[in-house]
Write the structure tokens for this entry.
Amino acid sequence: MYYEGPDAISIYIGRYDSDSVIYSFLTKLPEVVQDTVKLRVRIQGAATAVDRRINLVATDGTTAVENRDYILSEITFPAGATEILYPVVLLRSPNIREESKRLYVKIDPNNFFMEGALGLEIGNTLSIPYFKIIFNDNLSEPIWWGYLAFEIGSFSVTKLQFIISVYGEDYNFEGLFFPIVYEGITYMSPTPEVGNLPLRLRTALMKYELANGPLIDEFGNRITF
């Protein structure tokens, strides 16, 4: 697609990508107080030989509060560049523990740029009017915790966050057990990783404590495995 007219920028995504993301701090350790979602922003037009400034702004539908729940900063669009990653900073405020917050962000026009045209662009990408971020810090005991209670002990938010920091956000803990049927009754049988889990967690916790001291949960108890 060939673009003519004033310099413009737009948020863009892949043609088959989502125009939204759901983010939760629940998998992060307590010392993590902010995180960043990076949005792809591109010029509709040619690059220039000078730096220019851009910003994104919250739009209709946003329930999060700026500088309490998130930060949108003016940044530099470097000379010679045609696209950049814009950092949307999410803050771990107490308010997102109570309910999920919505942040809908769009281009904020200024002296350098106007909002770009919407729709299909080069390389099967799509310019969108705004990007939706839903974020929270809510947490409850997962179903699989009961299966692993002997190995990992009683539930706490901090302990769960630490376990996920070791195994990764996408680890399938329910997959550590598989159903078997005996005399008409279904039982959950463990995989070999269940036996390895306490040792792996104790080793990771030892490294954490050497660097940070004891890990204390929200009840004032020291985390152990």
